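Researcher: Please generate the 3D structure of the following complex. Treat every line as part of one assembly.
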Amino acid sequence: MFYSIFFPFYHFIAISSFYRVIREKKKKYAAWAFLFVLGLGILGLLFKDSFLQVFIPLKVKNIELVKLPSNRLRFQVNVNANRECDAVLQYWVKESTDTLYSDVSKRKNTHKLFITMTVARTRYKFRVLVKNASQRARSKVYPFQTQPIYQATPYFTLEHAASTILEELKNKYFLTQILTEPGSIVIIDHKGEIVWYEPFRKGVKVSHWTKDKTVLSIVGPEKIPSSGGDEIIEMGLNGQVLSHLQKGKGDMDKLVHHEVRKDKYQNIYALTFTKKVADLTAVNGQKQDTLHGDGIVVFNNKGKKIWEWSVLDYLDPLQDPEILKHKKDWVHGNAVFRLDDGNFLVSFRDLNQIWKISYKTKKVIWKLGEKGDFALKPNLVFSAQHYIHPTPDKNLMLLDNGEINHISRAMIFSLDTINHVADAQKVVTLPAEYYTTAKGSAALFGKQNDKVLFCLTDPRAFLITDFNGKILWKVQVGGDPYRLEEVPDLLYKNPQF
Amino acid sequence: MAIKFKFNIALLAAVISCTVFACKNGLEEETFSVFDANTLTNPENGEQAVRGTYAGLKDNGGYGYYAGFLYWLYEYPGDVVTTTLTARQGVQLDQLTYDASNASINDVWTSIYRLISRANESEEIISNIDYAGNGSTESLKQQHLGEVRFLRALAYFDATSLWGSVPLMNKPSSQFTEADDNPPLTDQATVETAMIADLEFAEENLPASYPASEIARATSGAAKALLGRLYMRRLEWQKATDKLTEVMDKGYDLRTPAEGGIVSLFSRNNRSDNEFIFVLKSSNESNAYSINSNSFGQNSTPWDYNRGWGNFPLNLSFYSVFNPADARRDLLTGVFTTIYGQVMAVPKAYGGVAVEADKDTLLATFVYNLKYPHTGNYNYSGFNNVTIIRYADVLLMQAEALNELNGVNQQSINLINLVRNRSNLPSYLISEFASKDALRDAIFEERNKEFFMEGRRRDDLIRWGKSASNNTNPLLKFKEKVVPTLKNPATYSDAVNYALYPYPQTEIQSNTSLDASANAGRVK
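Model: Done. Output below.
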């Protein structure tokens, strides 16, 4: 860098001086010329930045827009600047004022940036912004156009959005998945437009948005039942795979299913399938019969298994009169959540129960639900439930699929763990046509947390309702969705270049 | 001289320095370039487009299109398959109380157009790739075009069977004009002309067979058979028999009793049988072409049988139409031991073995089909073929076409007997049929026993009605057979043409070329 700037001066001085020296053979001149050059060099070093600013301002040299067929909504942009700098992309839909930014690339000459969160079939414009400690610059504005990602019949169709909720829906994004093959992680906006996706040859069984702005997913072939998969993949918005656990490699020795999340220590945890050999002769089974159940596994951020638990250690098969019927998929765990206190909540569909499990002792702390440890009014008994998680005010929320009476509802429980009473803070009951036999999710939504975001698999619908169950927003889905999660911080903020 | 020389040196040095300086930085322009790998040039991309189009046959899996809902529309309204009370959309179809907002009707509509759209896009992609210039062959290119055009014709076959006139959209999205956002209905005959062109191209350009790893791709035999089926639907008997004769020349055969017969045809281990002409492949064999799953395995059998969901109960009276010797009856749950250890059996009155219920015996109220065997696991994992065209169908279509052309004839009898003998039934004699009408009825009864739960019943009832009424009353047989199976026979309305489903409400609302009047006469 230094030489490129001062090369012309050296060049000038050196060429003229040495010609003189050679021509006139005057050693005195040679010495003076040498000193002069040295002096310039020292000055140049001392006032490098000032020289740079005056003579060669920071600027963007080359921009290359890369379109790859693997993803039609994500574009790599290679940027070359004339000096080390930070760079970011600024882009917007043509004739719109809503500006989007890429992630910032720091302290490089050559940057690899990504345009994400675009919608299909749309004209955009973009430019590159660069800055260093004292200067900033921007490139010219260039156009680009997104291609269609599917044709003719959309997969997600906005059917209804009440005017009362429009303001609140602005800049809201939702994460879901296509669980059949080929599968995909998908993020949609509030109009049902896909703004981000990542395709997989296998199905994407479940996905979860982390606080690190990444997507965690269980990926697996369709033939693995129970939303199970043989890979856990954590991916950034730029498509980079950050963690990749595969069954049979490293510490991942079991298939995972239904749920994968990250705890506050950056560990990845998931539900697993576990097995145990038991004597079932008392109920006409085999002397050495195999029970299949569920477990929890925790991997640290290096993929090392640091904790494991199996439900089969805490259930007596002979207590289940129909164990021979159930032994292939006993209890059917379908959700797990690690609480701030380090302990786990697990949902068992076939028990109609939520369990709290101690991380320290691995013991079951309590069971909530049918025949559980808490007194529960009959109308609050849930069945085939999914998506147990805590609300911001530490109550417990779940989707009651409602196998008992074929009515699905969102339920928020407050627990009195001293008197062993569970009461419902809120029950949001859906109309009968939204009953889903399996899968699904329900979570609070809105600035005031006064609405519920539903994913309902059988009716293939995403809903937002108020607490009375009034439908404020509905997106119809073209396949069977597993889950829908709000993505609270999808967009990169203006980095103020 | 010396001074002048020195000045020259200085000038030269300055010029050189400035030139270098300028080249290095001063006059440099910002450059912008685009690298676009989306322009597909590789024959491999053509292959991917073809596979993507096949995937449209099950739409997004689960219950999509041929993996489920299509056969709801073909089977539920008929007289054999009924439904459980919990499946509201299915009950509407079964009891003829559906309207334009029925979700299953909408589902099939969107699946069909999704497949058509994929075929259109693939056709463009393949057309634009230079196969021969990129290490492949022109004949593979024509095969790929043939495959997507076959699939497009199949989708239109279903569309026209279900709705009659439908929008004809045979161009890729890159050629869409504004008007294409709201495509109008195209007369059924025009749609069929386009289908015939696609199928004639396909039969010319598709291979007769594929390597074992790519089984279930469309063959020229499949194109001919579908063309034959289309001519049958159009009552063009001569064209049908010509085309079906060509299929019969393609080396297909019936699975023989020695190989396990009709029951083993549907075994999970027999998905590549020579009797299958075209199927939705659902396979977990390694290297099998794609891995698909369908919803029939999970839904066909009842809970008591193997924890199935029992969504396709068959009326008990259907069991009684079979001769006890008929091997096809073994594809019904006549008698079985429930997962709880009791025996479930069809009552004697319906041809079964149960005399009366006792503590170990339950009287069946329905029978269920065993054409989609599964092992009782969750997640719609049906690893069976969903039959779309099989050789027995070709034989019986040929028998029917010849009867319509020539009246009672020995060749038709021979063809029917091939199918009957394979299932342990005695041959018919030509003397048993006094008239073309009598033989026609026998053929349709045979088709019913052969193809139950294979998606054929609705088309068969309508074609039977057309033939029997000289094409004046397509619903003649439909009404005769279906009304007795309705919970309330008064549901049936002569003002409704049950041969045409209503266009989905969502399509009418979003397509400005349609309005509610399009469904006049299609719903009550």
